[in-house]
Specification:
The chain is mostly helical. Helix content is 80%, strand content 0%. It has four helices and no strands. Helix 1 packs across helix 3 and helix 2 crosses helix 3. It is globular.
């Protein structure tokens, strides 16, 4: 799990599109989609980390 995973998770939770996230993080749209797919599988852990860092 990386900081990018958490950033994508939080941005998706706040309604950002894949394109907006890719532009903000300076990564490809495909990478954002891959991270989002991974995040869906590990949603509980990311939610915990998101709450921890808030």
């Amino acid at each position: 799990m990386t900081d990018q995973n958490l950033a994508v998770f939080q941005m998706r939770a706040n309604g950002y599109s894949f394109i907006d996230i890719a532009d903000a993080l300076k990564i490809s749209d495909e990478t954002v989609q891959e991270l989002d797919n991974y995040n869906r599988v590990h949603e509980r852990e990311l939610q915990y980390q998101s709450d921890f860092y808030a």
